[in-house]
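Query structure, 295 tokens:
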């Protein structure tokens, strides 16, 4: 279904392609020096929830929208790589009946757009600080449809290689501490992998830490016309991984230590579209040097 464009102050599209007929123009500025231009894509409820948790934890269970799923493909077409936490892969694999998803473009028109933009083969980059994980349990690491990359710490790399003696995925090491050095990681992705445009698809913990580090340039937010509540109701059945310690609350898009009033970032509303009762907005972070408190 065509998107109804309410307003759009974004850049013009870099090329003329049939894929834009459904959405309208979509362009991005040049990336900053030394790292990619980084944008995120999330769906949330009217009350700000990003995941129901339990057996229906994926964003699609909130959006219930094929237009939102298609927009994901359009945004992936513009990205050199997709960035996500390894927990997102584990969670979505648990919900499937197979070895999990491969995060790739499904729409043929968006695949053609990607080729026209010269983005090359799709990449999935998974962030993990020190989780020892058997990569053979996940289909994405077969490398059939995308190039898999693991972004981790020095300690995490050692654990990963011990758990995977025949490791084939590319590994990028950023930091020696317990946490991935995200600013360093973004510089390495630009320098080592040539990534100029990076799409962060979560989860909320990774996004929150990326925002805290000042690394998020833009965010695309789909607001689904449903209200679910932050506190998980007692009748909701937990997933297998939640059974031992069921969570009490559902996450918002930002699930990390927050900001205080003095350093909270502000965002410029760049565009807004609608399909039915779903709202599709784009925001760009306002540099602190340009922000002025309204009088």
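Result returned for the query:
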């Amino acid at each position: 279904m065509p998107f109804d464009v309410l307003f759009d102050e974004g850049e013009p599209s870099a090329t003329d392609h049939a894929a834009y007929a459904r959405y309208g123009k979509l362009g991005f500025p040049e990336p900053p020096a030394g790292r990619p231009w980084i944008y995120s894509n999330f769906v949330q409820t009217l009350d700000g929830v990003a995941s129901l948790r339990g057996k229906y934890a994926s964003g699609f269970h909130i959006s219930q929208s094929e237009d939102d799923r298609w927009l994901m493909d359009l945004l992936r077409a513009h990205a050199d790589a997709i960035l996500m936490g390894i927990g997102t892969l584990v969670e979505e694999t648990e919900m499937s009946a197979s070895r999990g998803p491969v995060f790739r473009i499904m729409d043929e028109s968006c695949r053609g757009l990607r080729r026209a933009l010269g983005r090359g083969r799709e990449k999935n980059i998974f962030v993990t600080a020190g989780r020892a994980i058997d990569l053979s349990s996940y289909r994405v690491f077969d490398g059939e449809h995308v190039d898999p990359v693991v972004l981790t710490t020095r300690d995490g790399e050692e654990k990963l290689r011990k758990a995977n003696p025949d490791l084939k995925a590319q590994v990028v090491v950023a930091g020696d501490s317990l946490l991935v050095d995200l600013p360093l990681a973004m510089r390495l992705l630009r320098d080592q992998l040539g990534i100029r445009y990076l799409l962060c698809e979560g989860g909320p913990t990774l996004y929150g830490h990326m925002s805290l580090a000042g690394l998020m340039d833009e965010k695309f937010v789909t607001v689904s016309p449903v209200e679910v509540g932050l506190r998980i109701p007692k009748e909701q059945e937990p997933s297998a991984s939640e059974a031992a310690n069921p969570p009490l609350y559902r996450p918002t898009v930002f699930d990390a230590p927050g900001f205080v009033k003095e350093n909270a970032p502000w965002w410029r509303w760049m565009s807004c579209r609608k399909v039915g009762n779903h709202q599709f907005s784009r925001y760009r972070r306002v540099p602190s040097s340009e922000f002025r408190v309204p009088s």
